[in-house]
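can u do me a favor
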């Protein structure tokens, strides 16, 4: 037995199909998209080391946006042991990364201590690769905010 279609929804769908189309819709949508892309996002510069800097260029500086660092960590951690990061924060001293806080949704039945240690190890690797900073496990706070069944 199939349910009868809802009369209100059916009428709304018919009216939308029959409504005149806005002739400038493409122009309007392009304007909206360009404004969204032009919206700025506040970021904080984080000190980084050149991966292959010669000794005579030690005084040069390199800074990476905190957003870039957080995004790289998010991508690296997503799906590890079916966990999903929900918040990543950098601990900074001025512009120097001194640690991280990672909040995740864990998977039911996983050894959350082991998962936290693995997530921390991955985050340490990403920070080292991006910034050249050597962190240790004690510098990384991993907290499980929720469990997904």
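np, heres the sequence
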């Amino acid at each position: 037995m199939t349910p009868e279609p809802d009369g209100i929804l059916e009428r709304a769908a018919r009216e939308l199909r029959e409504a005149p189309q806005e002739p400038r819709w493409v122009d309007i949508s392009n304007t909206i998209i360009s404004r969204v892309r032009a919206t700025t996002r506040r970021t904080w510069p984080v000190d980084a080391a050149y991966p292959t800097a010669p000794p005579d260029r030690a005084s040069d500086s390199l800074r990476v946006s905190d957003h870039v660092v957080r995004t790289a960590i998010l991508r690296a951690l997503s799906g590890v042991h079916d966990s999903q990061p929900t918040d990543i924060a950098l601990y900074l001293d001025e512009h120097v990364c001194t640690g991280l806080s990672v909040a995740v949704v864990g998977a039911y039945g996983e050894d959350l201590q082991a998962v936290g240690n693995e997530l921390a190890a991955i985050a340490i690797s990403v920070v080292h690769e991006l910034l050249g900073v050597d962190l240790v496990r004690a510098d990384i706070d991993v907290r499980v905010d929720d469990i997904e069944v």
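The chain has two domains: 7-38, 45-148. hope that helps!!
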